[in-house]
Amino acid sequence: MYGLAQDSQIRGIVKDASTDAALSGVTVTLKGSTTKSQTNAEGKFVVNAQEGQILAFTFVGYSDKEIAVGKNQNLEILLESAFNALEELVVVGYGSQRRSDITGSVASVPKERLSKLPVNNVMQAIQGAVANVNINQASSVPGDAPSALIRGRNSFSATTGPYIVVDGIPLSKTDGSINDINPNDIESVEILKDPSAVAIYGVNGSNGVILITTKRGTTGKPTIRYSGYGGIEEAAHILEPVSGEELLERYAEYARITNTSLYNGGPVRNEFEWDNYQNGTTTDWLDAVMQTGVIQNHNIGLSGGSENARYFISTDYLNQKGIVKGYNYKRYSFRANTDFNTTKYLTVGTSAFIVAHDRDGGRANLMQAAAMSPYARMYNDNGTLTQFPMYSEQLWSNPLLPTTLDPERREFNISLNGYAEADFGNIWAPLAGLKYKFNGGYSFVPKRTNEYEGESVYNFAGLGRITNRESQTYTIENILTYAKDFGLHRIDFTGLYAAKSKYYQEAIATGEVFPNDALGWGNLGSASTQKVSSFADLYRSVSQMARVNYGYDSRYMLTLTVRRDAASIFGDNHKYGTFPSAAVAWNIHNESFMANTKDVVSNLKWRMSYGVSGNEGIGIYDALFLMNSNPLAMNGLSNAAIRYRVRMGNADLRWEKTAGFNTGVDFGFWNNRITGTVDFYKTRTQDMLLSQNLPRLTGFQNVFTNLGKLENTGIDVMLNTKNISKENFTWSTTLVFAHNKNKIVDIYGDGKDDLGNRWFIGQPVGVIFDYTKVGIWQEDEIAAGVNKGWDEQAEAGAVKLADLSGDGIINNDDRSILGQTAPKWTGGITNTFTYKAFSLNIFINTVQGAMRNNSQIGGASDEMGRRSTPAELGYWTRENQSNEWRSLSNRSNIYGYAFPSNASFTRLKDVTFSYNLPQSAASRIGVGGVTLYASGRNLYTWTNWLGWDPEARDVPRGNTVDGVNDQLNYPMVRTYVFGLNLTF
């Protein structure tokens, strides 16, 4: 008998196979129908089914399981943790592999960090969770994405960020941002780190690869999921300024040192400070420009489908009001992923999304606010903002002036990606295992900025500017795969032919001197002075790749890969680059001699790989001679003349190449109560893309060429432990550790350092090269002549620097390497506690061995008597002869010492407390599942850094660093949110 006359109630309990703990929230589906149930807080479920029908059990973080319904109507189902399941499929680029078959170093981001952590972009979820993936949150400006560095820096001047691929289509090199991808849409994230794993991406792989897979529809009735959170943000640390009384003492000391008079005899220095001082009125300028930030996010996802048509649709809204006034950000996104079985052999689908970013508004200037005297005047008598609150001091303008402007900053990403996959085995049985897949992607990324400055910021002539930028990227991939088992042998082949084209253009229109401010940028044609500029470029590439995976008896694995890329940016003689790799792996635990250790050793695999990858991260036309058009007077007329620019072309310019070795061990003990990986690697990059200076007699100043060698060595460690596994209580720990040593092997082929760029052979790319501070010169030392034969120009209160060369003077020969800008090691520890339906997750990360120049202490940020300063920052006086802080004299740091400081820190990064409503209670209110949570981010930082934060960007006044100006200084934020996840 194959079925019952009517449905019966099937009851059961679902448990963790290794811990025997009940699992709440497991989805139980009757295959071939819309019947679905979910386990309650005790792991129990009830479903109506007939004998012979199939029940499917699915749960995030666990391997799926199916059973046939028998006569037993009380079931006990054991699910294997997907993290420990060696049969789990892992995305590896142009396909997937069983984890047990992987030969390279591929790290998966824990799914709980993707599903349970409220973040604005996925990089925040990766931070500290994967060994040797350094995520730097240098900016907390709303809408800014963190930067990522995998296994150290592999280039002097070319790009160093990882290559990001979303659903098989590259996001990198399209002008898209990781902020374009809504974290709620992400199903999994894999990170390819070793040469074998990244070589499949050839020229794009030298800095590692991040593979993001978004969610897709499943068979069954429609499921609606709502995820939302809201909360507040505040500065994680306030760099408090001095009080009014303390500033007056500073003014008096500055006047004494410089022998200058104060305003009206003192004690204030400037005219606009006098009235407020007389009235006893002070202003907290930091409070004036800062506010409590507010953040909210709402996401609705709809998924479902039939056997032949599946869909996942989501829409998302993020609104963030920053902690500095005017820093606002809104993101609107929509995604549609579909899969259709059009015939028994053809599947087609889409992975399309549209996202809009809104960063409108005038922004207050935190640096200007920190410089303001508490006695400074904020408003004029007519109620308008003063231009220079400390007038007659005109170095520092009113930090609130930019908030009177209303610029538009808009950015969009429209990505329409689709695929078609043919399974030839369903056409003709002998072709089983042979598949062809076509991927096509189109990305349109327009950006616009409209700005106008007028009378409100004391620009009485008026200045308007409209900037439009856009890029269009086409990607085509043809992928042929064949997988077949021959007894104990398994063959898996992947072939690729791909092409890519990216067109970029920009146009900038500027107008100056307007009749009035009424129309702003809306009528640049009314400006007396008009200027228009434009630029465009075109990039094209083609790629071929072949990969063969061979496995024998689930014990021995071999992977061979070769990729060939050609790109338009290189010289005519070297358009193509070839990148091979090879890897082997041995599943030791599957050997017969390990049979007696099964109770102890549940997984033991050794891996080794070697491969070559590339980097093309230079400007599209950097290999060419470029010419300028300039007006030239001839015969009394202005004629256009063509001349070469400063850079010489190079037809022999070719790819940077990174060759690397990796060996690693994956292990699991005591039924995977303890699991982990350890990897050791060494890479060397050569033929590095460098701009080399040329003798002026050539007619050029520089040329891009292939010179230099760079080396990285390091170790990655990840350890997972299940410390306590009881029915109602569990405690698990994840520990990551990474060490990387970066070393310059050669620069220009002559064995010499490049002092101007701070590149030194045998040292990392980023170093602090400066004098060694040994104290502060004291009056008695100067009187005794201690500075003679040491620093003849020294005066009391000046920085005392070591005479390392011993030549009796302080000069460039006394500088040395004091530290490195990249951390020497990083680590993170995550502890997860569960008690029945409650869960507590605590994550701490640490960054050690990094050094930064401290602009808060340095002269660029402490302009002596012309500004307020942080209360933590002291200064030398005759009465307080500090040996740490210099005096207010403008000669106290004549050598330009940059005050490098230890930027190491340990941070309580995330704490999340959640509660899953029991299924019985959820059913009573008509929902499929309810999760409530509270989460805090950047809660506390242990550091000796003097400043807003050791990780936060701190750009000195008037400077531009990596294209970012001082107006974008922004503190690290502490975030508290409350969230709700609902399933219908």
Automatic annotation (TrEMBL):
Subcellular location: Cell outer membrane
Entry-linked InterPro entries: Beta-barrel_TonB_sf, CarboxyPept-like_regulatory, Plug_dom, Plug_dom_sf, TonB-dep_OMP_SusC/RagA, TonB-dep_OMP_SusC/RagA_CS, TonB-dep_rcpt-like
TonB-dependent receptor plug domain sequence ranges: 100-209
Alphabetized GO MF terms: siderophore uptake transmembrane transporter activity
Gene Ontology terms: biological process: siderophore transmembrane transport
Membrane topology annotation: Multi-pass membrane protein
Keywords, comma-separated and alphabetical: Cell outer membrane, Membrane, Receptor, Signal, Transmembrane, Transmembrane beta strand, Transport
GO cellular component, one term: cell outer membrane
Keyword Glycosyltransferase on entry: no
KW Membrane (keyword) present: yes
Cited SUPFAM superfamilies: Carboxypeptidase regulatory domain-like, Porins
Entry superkingdom: Bacteria
PROSITE patterns named among the record's database cross-references: TONB_DEPENDENT_REC_3 (PS52016)
Protein family (similarity comment): Belongs to the TonB-dependent receptor family.
UniProt-listed NCBIfam families: OMP_RagA_SusC (TIGR04056), SusC_RagA_signa (TIGR04057)
Name under which the protein is recorded: TonB-dependent receptor
Species: Sphingobacterium olei
